[in-house]
Amino acid sequence: MKSELHPHPEIPAQTLARTTDKHPVLSAATPKERTPRLSWLHQIPQRLKLALQSLQFRQAQSAPNYEPLHLYLSPADLNPQLGTATTTPKRYATNPVNTFSKRLAQTQRMDLDSFRFMLDQLPELVSIEFFGHQHDPLETPELFEMMKYAARLNGTVTTLKTHGLLLPNRWHELLASPLDTVVINLIGHKPSIYSLISGRPLNEFMPLLNNIQALVQQRNAVHSPLKIVLRMIVDVHHVKYIPEMIQFAESLGVEGLQLDNFVKMTPTGPIKTDRTLYRDHPGFVEFLQQIQDTQVSSSRLQITLPVLLNRDMATHRYCEEAFTTISVDAQFNVSACSQQYLSADPIHKIWHSQAFNSVMYQNLRTHFSTPKSTVPLACQNCAKNMPCS
């Protein structure tokens, strides 16, 4: 569904119209005298030659353009590699197209008008995931108005990832919204595991658990179709507790359990450690297969078990995000990965005509489509780059 453009106050109107580069068409000059027309059979070699020349020309002159299908949006976060909302990079200081919104500089949160403008640049979206690195998306005042707008615009499926501590402030808005799934970052099923893996205070666990139970009760009371999913993290020391984690999630009345492999998250992406689950660790594959055949297959929950990583993933090319996904922060900065902030020079904004086909994207696509190519270091530590993820 094509939406009407919502002009952004900081961007000239002529920049809103996104253009598509037109490929030149090979043509031959018309001869002065018409030559006898060849039969269809005799034209085949000429047609094949022309088609080959045209293909070679297009491949040499351009890269294929893609349109993103999935949006990862951090509406309360700013890319730490690109400065803060109140600081404009020097190379953009005199360019009105890239001047940061005054309202954004004050709140450091994306607002509804900015969200409407952003969606106009992404006409093919089928899903949006609201998440945060430093800040919970629930800190965004107009978050649920954004979800309503996306649903009205083209029926986009929305997912919210939250640490859950702010749920009491907004669960009435949440249950009245068209949100499809909320993923709550519970980390573990015990206070000790929660604190050990997350590094957060031990006394946060019980309030978080109470928030989950209250949300389930209120969801059931109003007959909301909202799906509630718990996310927990498993390392080598706690993999044995997976059966307990499944039973714990079932007792809470949620719809899903997402179990993720432990990796250390850094500003430059995930890093494998000695606590990470590897495929070559004795017994791990068999243990998870046993759980899959027993508890997972019989549970009413939708359960995803942790993805075991290979120690060497330098030539793995299984991630598809460079071809399907775009990640945007509150300042409209574009990244080609949902798991980390990628720095780029020049910085691409969502309104740039080639934001999804920039050098950053083309480089990643080359890595993930060229046999034996070595992928970036962060991709060598990511579960999305495993064949079963």
Task: Provide structural commentary.
The protein is α/β, with parallel strands linked by helices and 389 residues long. The protein has one domain (70-385): Aldolase class I (TIM Barrel). It has 11 helices and 11 strands. The protein has helices spanning 40-61, 102-107, 112-120, 143-154, 167-176, 191-198, 205-221, 242-252, 284-298, 321-324, 359-369, and strands at residues 70-74, 127-130, 157-162, 181-187, 227-234, 256-261, 264-266, 269-271, 302-304, 325-329, 334-335. The protein has a 9-stranded mixed β-sheet with strand order 9-6-5-4-3-2-1-10-11. Helix 3 packs parallel to helix 4 and helix 5 (167-176) runs parallel beside helix 7 (205-221). It is globular, with a radius of gyration of 25 Å. It starts with 39 loop residues before the first helix and ends in a 20-residue tail after the last helix. Mean pLDDT is 81; it is low at 12-38 and 83-101.
